[in-house]
Amino acid sequence: MGLSGNAAIVGAAQYKPEKYQTAPQMFHLEQVADLAHKALLDAGLHKDDLDGLVINGPHFHEASVFVPAMAAEYLGIEVNFAEVVDLGGCTAVAQIWRAAAAIEMGLCQAVLCVIPARMAPLGPDEDPAWMAQAMRFGGHSTAYGAPEAEFDLPYGHMGQNTGYAMIAQRYAAQYGYDKSAMAKIAVDQRFNAQYHKDAIFRGKELTVEEVLASKLVADPLHVLEIVMPVAGGAAVIVASKELAARAKKRPAFVTGFGERLSFKSPSYAKDMTVTPVAEAAKRAFAMAGLTPQDIHAAQIYDCYTITVLLSLEDAGFVPKGEGQRFIKEHNLTWKGDFPLNTHGGQLSFGQAAAAGGFSQVIEAFDQISNSAEGRQLKGCDNIFVSGTGGVMSEQGALILQGG
Ligand SMILES: CC(=O)CC(=O)SCCNC(=O)CCNC(=O)[C@H](O)C(C)(C)COP(=O)(O)OP(=O)(O)OC[C@H]1O[C@@H](n2cnc3c(N)ncnc32)[C@H](O)[C@@H]1OP(=O)(O)O
């Protein structure tokens, strides 16, 4: 059951992450068109090749419903497959496997997966404070009747920072917490960012001491172990094997995927230290017929350092409770023996809202297609990519393989 590996990523585009204050403002439809154009150019395909569309629904500026129809109309395409994905930071990974599955089912031949994440110009009735408000509560719903509005927010579980800190505290109680190992994740990724021309923290190298001396946001998480929100956006084209054969770059075939939603708030987790990627990765590896030992690079969703630690363990790269030792024993940079988040991760490349997860997908494609200028891994054929939504509540895994 699953994919046969007959669909591949053939082209991609993403905006350089920028601070919101200085980034250009564009309507989301404009961003979709611009990103699609750039991704098609990257692939060497034409707009008329597209017959599938997967897009984000939440936070789409110009519509809250009928988003795919509006976007397809704006692009001037007709599609046989249209989907909205609402999985927070897991959305990018989830878009890719849905596109691959639709292609393998014969519904379509080329799918545009896209998430615009630059601010749109605000209309006269729009409140410029909406984003600050949204950040304050993170993924929590404040709607009347929402469980988290009643049982999380009143107790100080605000936004994502506290939730991930709570998970880190639990991990510390069960397995111990080595602060310098955790900081090393951010440091090795920052090293990688020095080799990506678009990384927001390029030109700013980092040491373990600096991470540990930075502001404590939610104990034990320091500010330099937490992503910084930036403006951005990304698009990826997934195409059939036949179309992939005429693409400009070496395709990255989608040979395995898994997805798991375990809870909305970690307050309801059976065990906060066991994350949904465990099941998602198991399924993805089995589908691809590979094991973690076959992987040449891991692009792990990294909203926080604790996300990376738990994902490495639960995806099977290292046994439970031994992740911190593993991190200290291995060089996680693109020059090292365990290349991790070779673009810098979202911690150092920047997190463009739900499009942030695309940075991991696109880095995997860049590595497989030999386009990772300045940080290219040698013989990189098999890559593991993870996506994380909410507070470790929904996770996805992809196995991408060079054709
Ligand atoms: C989406 C999903 O489903 C899953 C997920 O990814 S969960 C994660 C979602 N993302 C978030 O929740 C955002 C997390 N980040 C934050 O809340 C904030 O960045 C923070 C609280 C950590 C820091 O905010 P702050 O203290 O108000 O910092 P702020 O006043 O904005 O900036 C001060 C300086 O620190 C820098 N900075 C801010 N956040 C930073 C960060 N995370 N890392 C490094 N530098 C940061 C700014 O660039 C700024 O520098 P300059 O003075 O040189 O311009």
From TrEMBL:
<dbReference type="GO" id="GO:0003988">
    <property type="term" value="F:acetyl-CoA C-acyltransferase activity"/>
</dbReference>
<dbReference type="InterPro" id="IPR002155">
    <property type="entry name" value="Thiolase"/>
</dbReference>
<dbReference type="InterPro" id="IPR055140">
    <property type="entry name" value="Thiolase_C_2"/>
</dbReference>
<protein>
    <submittedName>
        <fullName>Thiolase family protein</fullName>
    </submittedName>
</protein>
<dbReference type="InterPro" id="IPR016039">
    <property type="entry name" value="Thiolase-like"/>
</dbReference>
<dbReference type="Pfam" id="PF22691">
    <property type="entry name" value="Thiolase_C_1"/>
</dbReference>
<feature type="domain" description="Thiolase C-terminal">
    <location>
        <begin position="264"/>
        <end position="401"/>
    </location>
</feature>
